[in-house]
TrEMBL record:
Domain DUF4283, residue spans: 32-111
A Gene Ontology molecular function term of the record: nucleic acid binding
SUPFAM superfamilies: DNase I-like, Retrovirus zinc finger-like domains
PANTHER family in UniProt: DUF4283 DOMAIN-CONTAINING PROTEIN, GLYCINE-RICH CELL WALL STRUCTURAL PROTEIN 1.8-LIKE
Pfam families named in the record: DUF4283
Gene3D superfamilies registered for this protein in UniProt: Endonuclease/exonuclease/phosphatase
InterPro entries from the UniProt entry: At4g02000-like, DUF4283, Endo/exonu/phosph_ase_sf, Znf_CCHC_sf
Protein name (database record): DUF4283 domain-containing protein
Length: 479
């Protein structure tokens, strides 16, 4: 106690300033260098929501996500290479709003900046197919802003109802509802525009995403609750609480139910075998589209990509209307494990067909609420469909799974190269910090090796078997 009193007394008599050197901050600077600082333009999502979002799109590349200031986040990656890969990988959108990103700099105090130019997605509706070329679309949308890119579905001509194009626009510009251009015959052609999100500025609070009339800071009065108008279809409810929504000619039917105490919907799907009749179901799903929690699961009887169906006699392709329905409703697959192909026709040899026609889909609101939910598709049994199990972990914060090393990774051709490259890399800091940093980088590389060469062995076995069958048929037909 006596020593502490003397220390405090001596420190008060000393007027010299404490000097922090570069060596003092070296370890922290080295730790945060592989990081980016980001924020969502026009939104301030909670930390757990943004953390779930970036973990879904960047997966094992991320080390940690933290809140730096209100609405501003810092994301640390496992290596500087991953950070640069993300920064150079193009635009990222959160709920159709652009994510502003920049590398962390130890000499800057980060905050939201005044952005003058942002990327947005626009949809060109009722545009003739002959104008869907890259050069033609870039000319047409140049009347709105600077052309950036086409979305993959438009580029591959999978969805033909509208063309989706990304453009850079100014924050204070006007956004027309339609564009006009002179066609090859010299006459004027009009194309309607739909903006997925517009950078509307509020003149009251200088924020984005709302007008001055909608601004929460505009009025100091107490807000009043207003009953939401019920625009849903008239439906019948049975004694068990299930709601019968529709029954179309193809006998495709689905039921909607509400979870007690929680707003949202769970829709069970059983789609028709006929593509024309299925489109009635896609239209009904578009009518049911909601921003509340929405889960859809069942037999959609269609696929979203060509790779989701394999077999020698496969001749069907993804239905663009199904893709459009999934995109317009903002749906995506719930995180899953187990079998990839979850249906087969139970035939043998060259007649065997595998596909992924069963799915568990959800909108962004549901995924944000149940970010730890996971679906497991089990092995097929006596039925043609594999069973699927969906497990929810609401409000449970789980730690990271312990990392396990598998000797099979040594057989991968990239193993030795990755090990030597990381171990020879230069990392500044203490010896223990260098070892730990290299081990973390190696763990990320090993996860990549596992994903490339050893994950989803069930699907890989099916694909290899199908290649063998195709080769056998080709050899037999050419003898």
């Amino acid at each position: 106690m006596r020593n502490l009193e003397n220390s405090f007394r001596n420190s008060g008599d000393n007027n010299s300033k404490v000097r922090i050197t570069f060596e003092d901050i070296e370890e922290e600077v080295s730790f945060w260098t592989p990081s980016i600082v980001c924020y969502v333009l026009g939104a301030n999502p909670p930390l757990h929501v943004l953390e779930g979002f970036v973990n879904r799109i960047w997966k094992d590349k991320i080390d940690k996500v933290k809140l730096l200031a209100y609405g501003v986040f810092i994301i640390r990656f496992s290596s500087i290479e991953y950070r640069d890969q993300i920064l150079n990988g193009g635009y990222i959108f959160f709920n159709r709003r652009p994510v502003i990103m920049k590398p962390w700099n130890p000499h800057e105090n980060f905050k939201k900046e005044n952005v003058k130019c942002v990327p947005i997605w626009i949809q060109l509706e009722e545009l003739e197919l002959k104008y869907w070329g890259h050069g033609t679309l870039s000319k047409i949308v140049s009347q709105v802003g600077k052309f950036v890119m086409l979305d993959s579905i438009t580029r591959e001509r999978e969805r033909l109802s509208y063309a989706r194009v990304m453009v850079e626009v100014m924050m204070d510009q006007k956004f027309p509802d339609f564009l006009e251009f002179e066609n090859e015959f010299g006459s004027t052609t009009t194309v309607m525009l739909k903006y997925e999100w517009k950078p509307v500025a509020c003149t009251h609070c200088s924020g984005f995403g709302h007008t001055a009339e909608e601004c929460r800071k505009h009025s100091n009065g107490k807000p009043q609750w207003v009953m939401k108008k019920d625009n849903r279809k008239q439906v019948e409810t049975d004694a068990e609480g299930f709601v019968k929504v529709t029954r179309n000619k193809s006998k495709a039917e689905y039921n909607e139910s509400e979870v007690a105490g929680k707003k949202g919907a769970s829709t069970m799907i059983y789609a028709a075998n006929n593509r024309v009749e299925r489109r009635v179901l896609w239209k009904d799903l578009n009518d049911l589209n909601t921003s509340e929690n929405w889960l859809l699961m069942g037999d959609f009887n269609d696929i979203l990509a060509k790779e989701e169906m394999i077999g020698f006699r496969v001749k069907s392709y993804p239905d663009s209307d199904f893709l459009q329905c999934v995109n317009s409703c903002g749906l995506e697959d719930v995180k899953s494990s187990g079998n990839f192909f979850i249906w087969s026709n139970k035939q043998s040899g060259e007649d065997r067909i595998y596909s992924k026609i069963d799915r568990i889909l959800a909108n962004q609101t549901w995924i944000n609420r149940y970010e730890y939910a996971e679906a497991v598709f089990l092995n097929e049994g006596i039925f043609d469909h594999s069973p699927g199990i969906l497990t929810l972990y609401l409000g449970i914060v789980r730690g990271k799974k312990p990392f396990k090393y598998f000797r099979m990774w040594k057989s991968h051709p990239k193993y030795e190269l990755a090990l030597n490259e990381i171990w020879k890399s230069e990392i500044r800091g203490s010896k223990m910090y260098q070892v730990v940093s290299k081990m973390k980088q190696l763990k990320v590389k090993l996860k990549e090796i596992n994903r490339e060469g050893f994950s989803d062995l069930h699907s890989a076995l099916i694909v290899v078997k199908q290649i063998w069958i195709n080769g056998k048929i080709y050899f037999r037909s050419n003898i």
